Amino acid sequence: LLFPSCIFQMDTTQESYLDLFPLDAIVYLTPDSENVLEDVDPSKVYVLGGLVDESIHKKLTLQRAQEQSLQTARLPIREYMVKAVNTKNYHSETLAINQVFDVLSTYYETRSWPSALKAGVTSGKGYVLPDAVKE
User: Which part of the chain is the SAM-dependent MTase TRM10-type domain (predicted)?
Assistant: First the structure.
């Protein structure tokens, strides 16, 4: 996927991303990474992990990336958002692929993590921007 000028191009292939790109250019995005994604680098290839049931397959995407010797990163949810008070006491940094894509594309356009996270992290995840917290 290419972000420049908000034009998205997608090619499909049966080839693995491991065969298409140099390993040092690949960043596997996983909510379990210790590395915070601070910026989107156009020279990197970002792999959005598959949909994983977080209650069954914890750390599956991190494990997959480590097995493939890939760099990993997570979205800066903890750095820019706060846990919202909710009746279920539910807080999750695991997002669907379309939500991660929304965050990345909004960040690329705005260069603002708060704007990007607001665009992709739904209130159902239990996180909100600090200014959205009702006193």
Answer: 1-128
Q: What is the pLDDT of residues 2-37, one digit of tens each?
A: 444 445 566 788 999 999 999 999 999 998 999 999
CB 1 within 8 A of CB 8: yes
Question: Out of 11, 19, 53, 131, which one is annotated catalytic?
Answer: 53
In a domain, 27, yes or no: yes
SS (H, E, C) 26-83: EEEECCCCCCECCCCCCCCEEEECCCCCCCCCCCHHHHHHHHCCCEEEECCHHHHCEE
Question: Tell me: the pLDDT tens digits for 73-126?
Answer: 999 999 999 988 876 778 888 888 889 999 999 999 999 999 999 999 988 888
**Domain-located, residue 103:** yes
Is 53 catalytic? The answer is yes
User: For the chain, what is the domain count?
Assistant: 1
86: Cβ contacts below 8 Å, ≥ 6 apart: 126
Domain that holds residue 32: 17-132
- 6 located within any domain: no
We report the CATH number of the domain holding residue 125 as: 3.40.1280.30
